[in-house]
Specification:
Blueprint (H helix, E strand, L loop, with lengths): L2 H4 L4 E5 L4 H12 L4 E5 L7 H6 L7 E4 L2 E4 L1 H11 L9 H26 L3 H25 L13 H16 L15 H12 L1 H4 L6 H10 L4 H10 L1
Parallel strand pairs: 1-2
Antiparallel strand pairs: 1-3, 3-4
Length: 237
């Protein structure tokens, strides 16, 4: 651990309970063994002190020695610079390629948002096909990068894994919802499924959310007023 971070009496991670970008930062903090406090807010009722810290009004925010960092990518890069172990490849070209796949992960998160917000069954199925196409692309990337696995770059857990841990966590809940298995999101994707399982078993990924995460996500999905919400309501009725 660097002297800079070791001198910090406490890191505070300002969080929303379901935010996947908060999870990224929490995973990095756990991987590096950095103690931190968590301060959870409701983004629907943002306190004034939070608006002052986050110019974009989004989580996460990491408070470091009285100064605030916002945007998960920036926070994760900072933590990787000041504390070991390094989660990026040492080779500049490979590091850049990994960063590109991190951006791909953010695109997948946007597609997941469109999926759970789809207003009707036709839109839901269309968004499911978009998701599947992204997972097919990942299957090919894993064939190139991971070798024997279990992580994106093989044996070493890295920043691309940090990004995709929260991506796959959505489906621990979504896959249990009525009829989702019929959408065929994971069919014929053994590398992706193996990677997903390895990330789910990683302690830092597990510790990035609270024990009530699944319950909270299910309630969030049910409240969307979407095609997926109506599937949940049909079972609950």
């Amino acid at each position: 651990m660097s002297a800079e971070v070791a001198a910090v009496p406490a890191l505070t991670l300002v969080s929303h309970a379901l935010c996947p970008y908060v999870q990224r930062v929490a995973i990095v903090l756990h991987e590096k063994g950095l103690p931190f406090e968590r301060r959870t807010i409701d983004l629907a009722r943002k306190p004034d002190w939070f608006v002052a810290l986050s110019p974009l009004g989004k989580t996460p925010v990491l408070q470091v020695r009285g100064q605030s960092l916002f945007e998960s990518a920036v926070i994760c890069e900072y933590l990787d610079e000041v504390a070991m172990p390094t989660l990026h490849p040492q080779d500049p070209l490979q590091r850049a390629r990994h960063r590109a796949w991190m951006e791909f992960g953010s695109t997948v998160l946007n597609t997941i948002g469109a999926f759970y917000a789809a207003p009707d069954e036709a839109a839901l199925r269309a968004r499911a096909q978009e998701l599947r196409s992204r997972f097919v692309q990942l299957e090919g990337a894993l064939g190139e990068f991971s070798g024997p696995g279990p992580y994106f770059a093989g044996l070493d857990f890295g920043m691309v894994d940090v990004v995709f841990g929260p991506v796959f966590r959505y489906f621990d809940v979504i896959d249990t919802l009525p009829g989702v298995d019929e959408l065929g999101l994971w069919q014929g994707l053994p590398r992706v499924l193996h990677w997903r399982a390895a990330l789910a078993a990683r302690a830092s990924v597990q510790q990035a959310v609270g024990a009530d995460y699944a319950e909270g996500l299910r309630a969030f999905l049910r409240a969307r007023g979407s095609a997926l919400s109506r599937r949940i309501d049909a079972v609950a009725a």
